[in-house]
Design goal:
This protein has helices spanning 18-34, 48-55, 60-65, 84-93, 138-154, 170-186, 193-201, 212-218, 224-227, 230-245, 290-293, 308-318, 335-350, 364-373, 384-389, 410-427; strands at residues 38-39, 45-47, 67-70, 76-79, 104-112, 124-133, 161-166, 251-252, 264-275, 278-286, 301-307, 327-332, 354-357, 378-382, 391-396, 402-406. By secondary structure, the chain is an alpha+beta fold. The strands form three sheets. The chain has an eight-stranded mixed β-sheet. Strand 9 and strand 10 form a beta hairpin. The protein starts with 17 loop residues before the first helix and ends with a helix. The structure holds one RNA strand of 77 nucleotides.
Length: 428
Amino acid sequence: MESIQAIKGMNDILPDQIHWWQRVENTARSILENFGYREIRTPVLEKTELFSRSIGENTDIVEKEMYTFADRKGEWLTLRPEATASIVRAFIQHNLQADPLARKFYSTGPMFRYERPQKGRYRQFHQLDAEVFGVEDPMLDAELMYMLRVFLEQLGLSGVVLHINSLGCPACRAPYRSLLQTFLLQNRATFCSDCQRRLHVNPLRVFDCKVERCQKIIENAPMLLDSICEDCRDHFAAVRSYLDRLQTDYEINPRMVRGLDYYTRTTFEIITDRLGAQNAVGGGGRYDGLMRDLGGPDLSGIGFAIGMERLILLLQQQRSEPQRSPLVFLAILGDQAKQEGFLITQQLRSHGIEAEMDYARHSLKSQMRRADKLAAHYVVILGDEEMAAGAAQLRDMQSKQQSSIPLDGLVPLLKEIIRNGDATAAKN
RNA sequence: GUGGGUGUAGCUCAAUAGGUUAGAGCACUGGGUUGUGGCCCCAGAGGCUGUCGGUUCAAGUCCGAUCACUCACCCCA
C-alpha cells in the first residue's frame, strides 16, 4: 500500500527545525509590539473577489497562481496568496477606524500560491505581515523600514540590502505608463518573447527582465522617478531624509517594480543574493487607494511582508544555534524506583524544569548514553540502593561530579542547584 | 505551464563493461563481568534499489512510460 505524501510544495516543519521559527516569531512579536503594532488573525480562506479586486485582475498572482475552488454551494473561494487584502477587509468589516487604538496591525501565517516550487519558493509559505492605516506622513514610511531593519538586526541577519523606489500615484503613473509604452514599442522587435508580452500587459515589468539584451535597451528608457508629480516627489524626498536621520542604509532602485497593482508611492524590498534565484526576502509599500477600492473609508495604507522560509534559510546559512535550557534526566533501575522517578519527573516539570525519564527498563549504561544524546545537564540516578538509602545520586554531566541528594525535598533542592549552576555559567 | 538534474537503509552515499545472497559511514538497539555518558571494539535490526512495462539466459545497472523530489524560466515572499 502506498503511503500518503504531503501536497507538492507544502512542507512539514519538524521538531528539529522549529526553534528557528519560534525564534523569528518571538523576535517579531516583541519588536512589533514595541512599535505599537497589535496582532490580528484573519481566515486563510476568503472570497475570490477580495483578491482579484485588490491585487489586480491582470497580475500573475490572480491570473495563474491562486488556489481557487467552489464550495458546496458553488461560491468561489481562494486560499489567501497574501495578507494585506484580508486585513484591509477585516478593518472595513469591523469598522475599526472608529477605534482610536487600531491603526497598526501585524500577522503571521501561511499563504498559498500555485507555482512550481524551487529553492525559497513553496506553494504554502509563511509571511510576517505588518500594516498601518490612515497615516499619510512620510515619517511613517521611514519608521516602517527602520523597524524592519531593527528586526533583522535583532535576528543577526547580514548580507541584505534595502531597496526603495517610488511608483508615484495613479495621477502621475498613467501618463508615464503610456510614455514608457511608446518607447518600448519603438524597440519592440529587439525584446525577448517575455518582454514582448509584458509590453502590452504590464510595461513596467520589462524593467526587471533578466535578459541582457532587454536590460540594454531599457537603460535609455524614461524613468518613472523622473516623471512623478510634485507631491509624490516631495513625499519620496521626505522618506529618504527620515531614513538618513535614522541612519538606515538604503539604495534607490528606480527599476524596482512590484507584482501587485495596488502599490502607490513608496515601495521597498529587502534583497539578498544568497537565495538561489530568489532575491526578495521581504517587500512592501504604500497602497493609498486600496481601502477605498475595497469599499471602505478613503484611508491610506502601508505595509510589508517578510517570507519566513526565506528569512530562516538565510539565518541557517549563518548558523547561529540557540542555546537550550538545562535538562534533567532520570535514570531508573528497578520497579520501585520507577514509581518514585515517575513522580519526581512530573514534579520537576511542574516546577518549570525540563525533565525526561526512561520509561523502558534499559541498562544504566544505555540510559546514560541517552542522557548524553539529549545533552542533559544533570542525571538523577535512582535504583534500589538509593530507594533504601532515601537518597538519589545526582550527576553533573559536564564536570562528572556525582553526589548524594536526599529524596525528601529533592525537587526544591535540585531547583536551587540548577539556579546556582546557571548563575556561575552565566558569569563565565 | 516550459526546460535541466536526481530517485538504492531513517540520513549521506557505494555497487568494476549488465553477472551469485545489494554494501559502507552516521543514526538506532544490545553487549564489552555486579549500577555510570562522550572515544574504542563486537553484535543486531533496518531495503520488493520510486512505480509499471520492455530488452536479456541474467537488470540497481540498458530502453520507454509514469510518479516524486530538486534546480532554473515565468513571477514573487
